[in-house]
Specification:
With 502 residues, the protein is mainly α. It is built from 20 helices and nine strands. A hairpin with a 2-residue loop joins strand 6 and strand 7.
Length: 502
């Protein structure tokens, strides 16, 4: 795979995922170095003319009234990084941190940051040599992720820990092995490192990726479950959904129609209900809501990963330097919380479907989908487990973006809590992988009990894949292992790979 050329603009989420997940290398566009040089020169000229500049010749936070001499810049950079390196475990994943570094490097190259070439290069080198700083996931409030991503700056100096070739080692050791020299901080490099929302943005990008794939698998399992129910699929019709006009609903209905191509559900059946419970009849509308929320987050995220968060910021076209609040991330934080609420609806809907599939009056199958010969109880006590997971999701969707204190002497009196909001969203996604996996158990078992039915082109693949992983429940075995295996199947995205590659 060729290296990705970063320019400071037009970085796509797909390209970001190639860097974060697949280890694609990056290079810096030559013209970006020109912008960095012009920005540095402008800031140096203004400083020498006596202009007070936050983070350069003045301190940061409440210390903005403290003068910094030019001879003290390198020491000041180290002091800023060490005083701001806070936060608490657990740590971000390597994928999340690679996304963070790629985002910060890209929007640094716009030329609004006054970054040294050496600083830009060390972001590039860490990505290309597989050196990944250890970043505490908790402890930043989202008005720039200053207390957590400072650890990235320490790693650039050779301090702290990094993830390297599957091990956690000292940064200087990994850098020594790869021939990457420690970064010599110049001008306001430390302030440039920490005045970024790349932690929340990188995590949000990973959440978007996870949700996009999970929604597709959830729709696939929903369709297989619908076949197990012998449901009425009129609500999936293209013309019916076009009348409503909601983009996400239309998209998910079309996907479900594809998954059910050739299914027996397209034929009349004497035992089929006139209409099904809303968790089935409108199941795809719930994933459609997730898609609509997802598209809002993607729109804001694309803007943010291609725009600067620096304060003060250089406006290259005007050769000006201005105080600002471009590190504000409330739009993205609120979008993530909206997405989490939509995922909460999906969580509850999946649970309702599993409850319905346990009831003979709805399915005309056995109670709890137990074997017909009475050799096992079926999926009875599993309800306690998925109810508990859904209750956890309910607590996680409570908004955090409105919870903050005024800090730094009352100067920083607003916050978005973006990293916390995304962290909770990622936990909801992981919980949903369990729930989608459990619904896969229900769906395959219902299909087995219903007997000789013709599945859809894609739901047949889903059924076969599930049964490769978890056999039919025909004896009194523990369901604990089945849940683990089905969760791992969803995490592996094998269902997605097999259905998208035909």
């Amino acid at each position: 795979m060729d290296s990705l050329i970063l320019t400071g603009s037009n970085l796509t989420l797909e390209e970001l995922y190639e860097v974060a997940y697949q280890g694609r290398g990056v290079e810096i566009a030559p013209e970006a170095y020109d912008r960095l040089k012009k920005g540095r020169q402008l800031m140096q000229d203004l400083s020498r003319q006596g202009k007070p500049i936050y983070g350069l010749n003045r301190g940061v936070g409440w210390n903005k009234d403290q003068n910094i001499d030019e001879d003290f810049f390198e020491t000041q950079n180290r002091m800023i990084l060490r005083s701001h390196s806070l936060g608490v475990p657990p740590y971000n994943t390597d994928v999340e941190v690679r996304a963070m570094m790629a985002i910060r490097l890209n929007n640094m190259l716009i030329g609004a940051s006054c970054a040294s070439d050496e600083l830009a290069n060390i972001y590039r080198d860490f990505l290309n040599h597989g050196i990944t700083p250890r970043i505490p996931r908790r402890g930043a409030v989202g008005e720039a992720d200053i207390t957590t991503i400072s650890h990235m700056g320490l790693a650039f100096l050779g301090d702290g820990d990094v993830s390297y070739k599957g091990q956690i080692i000292k940064a200087w050791q990994a850098m020594e092995r790869e021939g990457v020299p420690p970064c010599r901080m110049q001008l306001k490099d430390a302030h440039t490192i920490i005045l970024s929302n790349c932690q929340g943005e990188g995590m949000a990008a990973v959440m978007v990726h996870e949700v996009e794939n999970l929604v597709k698998m959830s729709d696939l399992i929903f369709c297989l479950d619908y076949e197990g129910l012998n449901g009425n699929i009129e609500s999936l019709r293209e013309d019916v959904n076009a009348l409503r006009g909601l983009p996400g609903q239309i998209e998910c209905a079309a996907r479900c129609r594809k998954y059910l191509e050739g299914s027996y559900l397209h034929e009349a059946h004497p035992d089929r209900a006139l209409q099904d419970p809303l968790s089935f009849r409108g199941g795809f509308t719930i994933t459609g809501t997730v898609v609509d929320a997802l598209n809002f987050v993607k729109k804001i995220l694309h803007i943010q990963i291609n725009s600067p968060s620096d304060n003060p910021c250089i406006v290259p076209a005007q050769s000006g330097l201005y105080v600002n609040s471009n590190f504000e991330t409330t739009s993205l934080a609120v979008g993530v919380e909206m997405l989490s609420i939509a995922l909460g609806h999906l969580s509850r809907t999946i649970n309702y479907r599993m409850i319905k599939m346990s009831c003979p009056e709805f399915t005309h199958l056995t109670r709890f989908l137990a074997p017909r010969d009475g050799s096992a109880h079926g999926y009875d006590e599993i309800q306690n487990t998925y109810s508990s997971i859904d209750a956890e999701n309910r607590s996680l969707i409570n908004p955090s973006s409105v919870d903050f204190y005024p800090m730094q002497g009352g100067i920083e009196d607003h916050a978005s809590n973006l990293p916390l909001s995304v962290s909770k969203g990622l936990q909801i996604v992981d919980n949903l992988k369990y729930l989608v996996g459990m619904e896969a158990l229900y769906a395959a078992q219902a299909v087995d009990l219903r007997g000789d039915i013709r599945l859809g082109k894609y739901t047949q693949i889903a059924y076969d894949t599930i049964r490769e992983t978890v056999p039919e429940l025909v004896d009194n075995r523990s369901i604990f292992e089945d849940i683990r295996l089905s969760y791992e199947l969803i995490c592996s995205e094998t269902l997605l790979q097999r259905t998208e590659n035909i």
